[in-house]
Amino acid sequence: MRHGRKVNHLGRTDSHRKAMLANMASSLIQHKRITTTLAKAKALRLYVEPILTKSKNDTTHSRRTVFSYLQDKDIVAELFRDVAVKIANRPGGYTRIVKLENRLGDNASMAIIELVDYNTVYTKGEAATEKKATRRRGGSKAKTAAPAATAADVTPADDAVVVEDAPVAETEAPAEDKVIENPEEKGE
């Protein structure tokens, strides 16, 4: 049983696995999207998300920490210059894994791992309307009660009562607003 074993070793030694994940993370930052096996994509997500979080704080210490993982100063510069600016408002979940068809050669399950903020297909609508961070609560009762109170405040004139017909279907001729005299006077 694999109780508590979080690291997927991917059938590699520790040094090989770290080098492979560093190379894949560099490729992901450079190209914004890579295609790999599903197991490697899931392992890469665990590896690269803390690096992306670290890049949001642009200090010398965080740059050196990220460089210790990636080992490529050009990729680190691109990460802090371009990617960190784009993900600054996101509280996590910087990557997306999309499953693909199995590979023809060995039937391995394939996937695309991409940076969420760089996919224009999904983020096109979100960029135009930024969502306000609110919590859901039962505050809609006050909004529905307010229009009823304003309608009750308006009173018709003393001598005439205005009655409006319901909306008319398109096939009927439009009806005019009817003005009825005071009903008590008609009863005489």
Q: In CATH's first tier, which class of one domain applies?
A: Alpha Beta
Q: Low-confidence runs (pLDDT<50, min 5 residues)?
A: none
Q: How would the global form be characterised? A: extended
**First and last CA, distance:** 94 Å
Q: What proportion of the residues is helical, as a percent range?
A: 40-55%
CATH architecture of one domain: Alpha-Beta Complex
- Using only C-alpha atoms, the radius of gyration works out to 31 Å
Structure classification: alpha+beta
CATH topology of one domain: 50s Ribosomal Protein L17, Chain: A
Average pLDDT confidence is 82
Output the strand order for the largest sheet: 1-3-2
Task: Specify the biggest β-sheet.
Answer: 3 strands, antiparallel
For CATH, the homologous superfamily of one domain is named as: Ribosomal protein L17
> Beta-strand level of the residues, as a percent range?
5-15%
User: Secondary-structure element sequence?
Assistant: HEHHHEEHHEEH
Number of helices: 7
Number of strands: 5
What features would you describe in this structure?
The structure is a single chain. The protein has a 3-stranded antiparallel β-sheet. Strands 4-5 form a two-stranded antiparallel ribbon. The longest helix has 18 residues. The mean pLDDT is 82. The chain is α+β, with helices and mostly antiparallel strands and 188 residues long. The chain has a domain of 115 residues: 50s Ribosomal Protein L17, Chain: A (Alpha-Beta Complex). Helix content is 47%, strand content 15%. A hairpin with a 6-residue loop joins strand 2 and strand 3. Helix 1 crosses helix 2 and helix 3 packs across helix 4.
